[in-house]
Amino acid sequence: xxxxxxxxxxxxxxxxxxxxxxxxxxxxxxxxxxxxxxxxxxxxxxxxxxxxxxxxxxxxxxxxxxxxxxxxxxxxxxxxxxxxxxxxxxxxxxxxxxxxxxxxxxxxxxxxxxxxxxxxxxxxxxxxxxxxxxxxxxxxxxxxxxxxxxxxxxxxxxxxxxxxxxxxxxxxxxxxxxxxxxxxxxxxxxxxxxxxxxxxxxxxxxxxxxxxxxxxxxxxxxxxxxxxxxxxxxxxxxxxxxxxxxxxxxxxxxxxxxxxxxxxxxxxxxxxxxxxxxxxxxxxxxxxxxxxxxxxxxxxxxxxxxxxxxxxxxxxxxxxxxxxxxxxxxxxxxxxxxxxxxxxxxxxxxxxxxxxxxxxxxxxxxxxxxxxxxxxxxx
Length: 379
Hints:
By secondary structure, the chain is α+β, with helices and mostly antiparallel strands. The chain folds into four domains: 1-96, Helix Hairpins; 101-252, Heat shock protein DnaJ, cysteine-rich domain (Chaperone, DNAj Protein, Chain A); 268-340, Urease metallochaperone UreE, N-terminal domain (HSP40/DNAj peptide-binding domain); 347-376. The chain contains nine helices and 18 strands. The chain has helices spanning 5-9, 17-31, 41-55, 58-67, 89-96, 132-137, 282-287, 347-360, 371-376, and strands at 105-107, 124-130, 139-150, 165-167, 176-183, 186-193, 202-204, 216-227, 236-239, 255-261, 268-270, 273-281, 289-295, 298-304, 313-316, 322-323, 326-330, 333-340. Strands 11-12-18-15 form a four-stranded mixed β-sheet. A three-stranded antiparallel β-sheet has the order 1-5-6. A hairpin with a 2-residue loop joins strand 11 and strand 12 (273-281). The N and C termini lie far apart (73 Å).
């Protein structure tokens, strides 16, 4: 889903829970498809519900503030509510008008949705900078990542060792409560997660002293990850099982490492090719020569053919970037030739150049300070 969740709900980032709820109800009333038949209303309604789903829960809100949409459940797959999940017009009214009237709490019947089973942990994102050669050749990198790990004291249950959970007395283990709500539009039934047990149907009698009942602890872990040869800006690496630990011993999420490559003062990259420049004298360009040039592999010999023109591009084959996923295949190193023409020459050089010009029958402005050679010669 595109857009910032706070902007979608029209609230500031320090909004409190009550103001957030008021903003959500106002927008949900406005854009519910049973009320608003305009094009785009249904998609807007889904965005509003997804934003509220994330920001109304303190834990997911904190993760969103830290990592953005990539840090909250369902982000990778688009997440959020579907209109079909919200039921009809009466269902949204129980949300919008839940503040009206005084309902009587009761346990829900056979429509239990309690969530007392294992829950997969969240995926995490880490941005990692590489220098130019690290991206070309890959290698191992050590990183530190803060994430949630299962509490060893209670084995992730949240209960003090030797104790356990009991059935919630508010919802009788259903995980939901039903309220009858009177509104100007009639009476509606509101079904919501039980706030006593947070929808699990169970409550912990004695909380673990280490994790205080959460079942997980924030820890910073050191990891070694392998960077494959040929990665580039925006390459994403997946490290399985290194995200947050799941609740109630659920499987951990994954870690996604996004790579950003720093620029190099000598080399630039075009796909799997590398580019650089080398300057030669005008005599080396005319007569040709062999020079040592820098490559990502070290020094290499480069032959400058006689008569090389300015901005000629010479190629060192298989000295470029390894192809990602197939490091045996490499690109080329393309070297642009710059020719240095001197701004001053001495009298001996001038005499030799004038003789050469005479042999070639070219006018040089001999005997004056004008012309190319006259401009170069200064006593």
